[in-house]
Amino acid sequence: SPCGPIIHGLEDVLIKVTSISDIDGRKGILWYRGYRIDDLAKYSNFEETAYLVLYGKLPTRSELSEFSEKLASNRDLPEEIYSIIRVLAENKVHPMLVLESAVSALAGFDPKAGDLSKEALYDQAIRLTAVLPTIIAAHYRFSRGLGVIKPKKDLSHAANFLYMMFGSTPDEVSTRAIDLYLVLHIDHEVPASTFATHVAISTWTDLYSAIVAGIAALKGPLHGGANEAAMKQYLEIGSPSNARPYVEKLLAEGKRLMGVGHRVYKTYDPRARIYKDLVRELSEKKGNMTYYQIAEEVEKVVLEKLAPKNLYPNIDFWSGIAMYLLGIPYEYYTPIFAMSRVVGWSAHAIEYLNEHRLFRPRACYIGPHDVQYVPIDQRK
Ligand code: CMC
User: What is annotated as the active site (predicted)?
Assistant: First the structure.
C-alpha cells in the first residue's frame, strides 16, 4: 500500500500484556492464570474456574462458597427484562441478538452501570455471569410458547441452566457436559470478541456495553458458530461407514471440514482432546453412540490427510455432539459459548482498565482529496 505495511486482521499484533490466559499453539497447551486446562478440567468446575479467571487465584473454601452464593442469588431478572425477552423471542429474534438486547437493557436497571471502580466492575461481572443462562433459557421457553422457569438457588451454575431450559433437575453426566464445556471456554487470550470488548472498554464505556460488543462479535459464524456446522455435517454423514467417503469427497472438492483447523493451534486443540472423552461418556449414558462413532471415523481421515498440513480437530469438532445429545437446539450453541466467555471478557476488561489506553488505530486513505462539490441539479 502507499502508506506502508497494513497488518490485515491484526494477525500476530500484540495489544497488551496479560496474565489471564496463554496458548502454546505448537504444543497444544492452554493455561488460565498459569493453571493447565487439563488440570482445571479434571479437578475444577465452572464456579471455581470463573473465580480463578476473574481474581487471579484459586479460591479458598469460604471464598468459593461466597462467590457461588453471589452468583446464585443474582440469577433472576427484573420482570421488565423477561418482558423484553418474551416479545423478541415470540417474534423469532435470534437468541444472540436477544442476549445483546437484554444485556444492554439490564444496564438501565443498575444504578452503578457506568461506575468503573474495581468493586462495581466485579459486582457487574458476577451479575452478568449469573444472568446469561437465565436470558438464554427464557428465550428458549418463550420462543416455544412455554412458561418461563425461574432459576433455582440450590443448583450449580450448569445444573440450573439445564433446569431452566427443560424443567427438571438434570442427571450428573448432562450437568458435567455443560459444566466442562463452560470451563473449557472461559477464556482464550484475544480472539475477535475479546478484542471487541477491549475496544469498547478502552473508551471508558460501561461493562454492560463492553460485554454487548463481545457478544456481537462472537455471533459471527467465523467465531462462535462452528460447532453447529460440525454437528450438521455428522447428521448429513448419517452413519460411521459413510464418514470416510464423505470426507474424502469434500476434501477432493476443496471444501472445508467444520470443526477442523485453528488460527493458533497447529496441533490437536487441548480442549478438543478433553471434551472428546466427555462426549464418549455422554453418548454411552444417552444410549446413542452414532454421532460419536461418526466423528471418530471423520477424525481418522483428518489425522491421515489433514494433520500433515497442521490441521487437527478443534473443540467444535466434539462439542456440537454434546449439545445435540442434551436436546439443545442449534441456535443456542453460540449463546452457551457466550455464557462461559462472559467471564473472560469481564476479566480482560477489568485488566485493561489498568492500562486504559484508548484504542485508536489509523487507516490508510486511498481515495481522492479536494473534490469539487457539485449542486444536486447539476449532477449526472
Ligand atoms: N478443512 C480443510 N482444509 C482446511 C481447513 C478445514 N477445516 N481449515 C484450513 N484448511 C486449509 C486451507 O484450505 C488452507 O489450505 P491451502 O494452504 O492449501 O490453501 C490452509 O489449511 C490454511 O488455511 P487458512 O484459512 O489460511 O487458516 P486460518 O488460520 O485462517 O483458518 C480457521 C483457521 C479456523 C478459520 C480454519 O481452519 C477453518 O475455516 N476451520 C473450519 C471452521 C472451524 O472449525 N472453526 C472453529 C475454530 S475453533 C473455535 C474457537 O477457538 O473459537
Answer: 262, 316
